[in-house]
Amino acid sequence: MSTRELDAAGISDPYLRESYETCRELNAAHGKTYYLATLLLPSSKRPYVHALYGFARYADEIVDDLASTLTDAEKADWLGSWGQAFLDDVQRGWSDDPVSMAVVDTVLTWDIPTAHFEAFLHSMAMDLTVTEYRTYDDLYEYVYGSAAVIGLQMVPILGPTRPEAYDRAVDLGVAFQLANFVRDVGEDLDRGRVYLPLDELESFGVTRADLERRTMTPDIVEALKFQVQRVRDLEERSRPGVEMLHPSSRDCIEAARVLYCGIVDEVERNDFDVFGRRATVPMRRRLAVAGPALWRARRARREFGSGQPPTRKESHVPHAEPGGAGLDGHPR
């Protein structure tokens, strides 16, 4: 992260700056499309958005990426203790964990409700025991915590101008997650999971066993078309929310909407083959969206400024070298 961004955000403590940089690195490494969109935000807002991504990605790594070293029970214990430590750190006003330090600072700076993080941690815990969902309502419990609350966490930073911005952020977050579920059917099967509602699959004559055979059939294609349409419906419902944000934030969210929801367009272009080809938005498409958006975002900042500045409270910052857990999932 550039010194300019941290300075613009008013983040001066060296340990806190290091934590924000750790979160930015997680964002850059694991969320390239999302990271590209964050570059459209004012410099003073970017570190906080990176912190929220870092929290989500780190928890997700605990669930998905430590399978070779930890059992599910061990991961559940780790996630539970790490999550509770984070919530305790929010209450006391600072953290010495290399990831949580920046996140706690972000939560307190922007007054983000801790309920959103509790819901997220609940969904991450579900991933350790739940491998399929019977209905969309069942799935929505997971999606709300894993995706909708991410949008709710971000809205205070983006500068909402109307209360309805929060509802539209939920729609967009769910659309993002469902687009990933459509694209990642094969990868999720590798992890023993199915994130498409079983009753909806069955309405098209598709069972989990059919998916596990990994052979495209007309029935599977029709089932996927149904899921793609839900993504597009949610995306359309979310669109008014972009105009409910401060002008300096709109191009970031609009670019993210186009690129993330564009995943289902690529699935469609791949003839819905979710087993043989991973749908990705081509770089030329990313640049075609990001280039004009960058120009518009700069113009918006010149005309309208960067929105409400954060309220820095240096008491958020610990006065000891950060410890906690390392990015390998084990205590330092």
Explain the overall architecture.
The protein has 332 residues and is an all-alpha fold. It has two domains: 117 residues, no CATH class; 175 residues, Farnesyl Diphosphate Synthase (Orthogonal Bundle). Helix content is 66%, strand content 0%. The chain has 15 helices and no strands. The radius of gyration is 20 Å and the shape is globular. The C terminus is likely disordered.
- At the fourth CATH level, what is the homologous superfamily of the largest domain? Farnesyl Diphosphate Synthase
CATH architecture verdict of the largest domain: Orthogonal Bundle
CATH fold-level assignment of the largest domain: Farnesyl Diphosphate Synthase
Radius of gyration: 20 Å
Overall, the morphology is globular
Strand content: under 5%
The H-and-E topology, N to C, reads as HHHHHHHHHHHHHHH
N- to C-terminal distance: 24 Å
Structural class: mainly alpha
How many structural domains can be distinguished in the coordinates? Answer: 2
What's the main sheet like? none
Relative helix content? 55-70%
Number of discrete helical segments: 15
In total, how many beta strands?
0
